[in-house]
Amino acid sequence: MAKLKRAERLEKFKEALQENPFLTDDQLAQLFQVSIQTIRLDRNILNIPQLRERTKEVAEKSFNGEIKSLESEEVIGQLLDVETGVSGISLFLIEPEHVFKRNYIARGHYLFAQANSLAIAIVDDVLALTTAANVFFDKQVKLGDNVIAKAKVTETTDKYIQVSVESFVNSELVFHATFEIYHRTDKK
Amino acid sequence: MAKLKRAERLEKFKEALQENPFLTDDQLAQLFQVSIQTIRLDRNILNIPQLRERTKEVAEKSFNGEIKSLESEEVIGQLLDVETGVSGISLFLIEPEHVFKRNYIARGHYLFAQANSLAIAIVDDVLALTTAANVFFDKQVKLGDNVIAKAKVTETTDKYIQVSVESFVNSELVFHATFEIYHRTDKK
Which residue range or ranges hold the HTH deoR-type domain (chains A, B) (predicted)? Predict the structure, then answer.
């Protein structure tokens, strides 16, 4: 995209965020070929909060009524969508505490935690415990990435549910897993 | 064990902790058939710190010189032993923030994090990244449990290392996993 005057850019800026509310300042800066400082100023002018606040707004649409298997604040990342028994989507921002100090690569257990807690969240039962998992770290995830995890139930029996999760950064697959989850209708 | 007088109990108490320094107050209370309050008093008399402090003392034996693949404080749990390229042992106490609120069962990703970070720690190389994992949650782990993870390298090739981890609570297997870890001698 060629460099735009501020007025034009502000218009495009609003459109871009309407289309994808999860764009980071970094991605916006690249998109508009301006500095991150300029993007922050633009956000201020337009009164658009930073990504973390924006996703909180989305997440404020509480899923507490829909989720049975855990408290919604126990999901690692922010739930964007849940259809219990069927599927779910969550967003997790990779912040400094989630990466190895020496190379800024996200630590595996955070990707696991996002995927596993999303898998649990879509189980349509009050007790849901993971019994096994098959996990693949397909591509390095870095500080500042926002990871979108998509889970779907692939098999259901009386006692077990199988959930498959795929996680993406900028539409690229970075992680996938299959979880086998034991479920029951009482909490003990 | 029959109920003992305090003086006798204090002697046995010291012996028991010498044999297994990771006994919790709860386990000691069961062992000596007294209340946890009594155990705390006994500890005070003997000037024995609580488990968390005791394990810190063990962990103060720093492994920073031995571990190459991450900073030793990045290991989840407390490293008790490491022989890089061969094996390692760590301890993780299940505290309130590690369990589901409704049933006090430990959340899977903490057991995963303990095992995975231990597996990484024993890799004898500066770059070590998990590429895949096969994980089994064999038995529920509860609030207050102390989980001992034991890792060993089972296969090494030029690019990949396979590490098998078994985690125990009171000598019972609660979790086991196999990690496939990519390794390289530079940090990029």
Answer: 9-53
